[in-house]
Predict the structure.
Amino acid sequence: MSSPSDFGSSDSGASGFESEPMLGVADWTELPTDERRCLRWMLRTGEVTTLQTSEELGMDEDASRVVLEALVARKLAVFIDEKIVYVGNVGRRTARFKPGGMWDALADKLIDE
Amino acid sequence: MTTVISIHSFRGGTGKSNTTANVAARLTAEGNRVAVIDTDIQSPGVHVIFGFEDTPEPTLNDYLWGRSSIAEAAHEITDRVSMDMTVADGGKLWLIPSSIKPGDIARVLREGYDVGTLNDGFRTASKDLNLDYLLIDTHPGLNEETLLSFTISDVLLLLLRPDRQDFQGTAVTVDVARRLDVPNLFLVLNKIPSNVDVDDLREQMTAAYGAETAGFLPLAEEVVENASGGLFSLTSPDHPWSQEIGKIVARIQAN
């Protein structure tokens, strides 16, 4: 598994987070099991605390905090307030690359209509 | 807690939207609160099967671009079921459509959208509508949105045809779904010619994928002639195709 420092990030601000997640959705298959389970649950649940996470993952609170912090380090979660609340960071979908002139062919007027 | 069901296939034309619409309709008729969300933003179509020429507005696109809430983009369409089948008490159906307008599709292609917002929409819709089931009609193939829907789903229905390209692509998809720990994965084989031994096929599918096949939908002229013109399993409930839809619904509910 790559380390967080191997990846760059860009700031889109689209989702309100400081920067894009370091891992794409496809990379989630390579996450350690606990992190993947935790991320999956967070995406379904929304904001979570370490206590809730420990109950969901069946581990003590310190261990669940380690899992959450690992997701934060990978920019797949964000720590958002003093209660140690985390939320999954999925990030923005980039627009697809298109060959030059394609938008001319499609006619931008489609968007303006 | 809402049961999230993604309906997916590796390739297009397998019958995802038709299956999604009919499964949703049957779940609704049994008294469940059900929503269908069309996440095939580049080529939306499930609205047609529910009888809409144009997509009701606002759409999922409007929600993703911050122009509406997800609740506003959820249109109650229970009458599309009750016109052909009695709906048990409590049964309701919502459709969150993707826009069919060329400008909206072009905008999505050019600008993209926030996948996190899409995921928030799944969660908010489930809670605000108090859903028993959320059915996600996905774009074919493996991409960010389909992988996201796999990750958050309780049930993944993988559609394929008895076709070598589909068999190979489904193997890839099953592997990815397992890596993402999808709790319940079922195959649905669609457009099966009449001369195929289904029992033999069932054995081959189980051996090849290590997964249960929830339905074997026959290639039926009547379904082809219906041409996405309505909810076939409601208008022809005794047809073998419709009975297989019933088996798929029963398998989903058995979890």
Observations:
- The interface with chain A takes residues 4, 102-103, 106-107, 109-117, 119-120, 123, 142, 144-145, 147-148, 151-152, 176, 179-181 of chain B (CB under 8 Å).
